[in-house]
Amino acid sequence: MKNKKYYIPFTLLVLFIINSLLVVNNKYNVIDKNVHDFVIKFSSETMTKIMKVFTFLGSTPFIIGLCILIFIILMLLKKKDYAFKCAGILVISTLLNNIVKVIIRRPRPEYITVIENTFSYPSGHTMASVTLYGFLIYYLFKTKISKSYKILFSILLGIIPFVVAISRIYLGAHYFSDVFGAMLLSLALLTSIDLLYDKVKKNNKTN
Fold it and tell me: pTM higher than 0.85, yes or no?
């Protein structure tokens, strides 16, 4: 692999494939159970309400609405490339999530407490939130704001998908391996965003 820019996304993709194979072969059963048992130790009526709020931050309506808002703001700021990167990466993330779900066809946990009609692996909420909030972190580091603000806002934005992932486990919508796989695939996509976009632009110019 001559281009070093491919190293990180390629490594993350390989880890995702390994994770998927472990899921298919039921090698995560003990870990999934232990993580779920640990998370629900903190269960209470108040905690459940809080977790439902966090899970909403990764829901399809909220993510789509936020993406549209970000797209409009970036267009108004005349950041056309970033606007299309934002929309494009979310579309690709959604497509990949649905494709993998259909391939793996993993049933939801039996202890699920929310209504879900799709397969379990990988977590759609986690993948969408890592992709979109991760894009915002990516964009922050492309701006000219001070380094301290970049770090502060990145930490705040990074906490959101992490808590969304925990909320999915807490509510019984996903296993730990579902959210872990979602994170790996989303990060592989995020770290290759410039490579993918530049390739699309190059192909459009040559056609």
Answer: yes
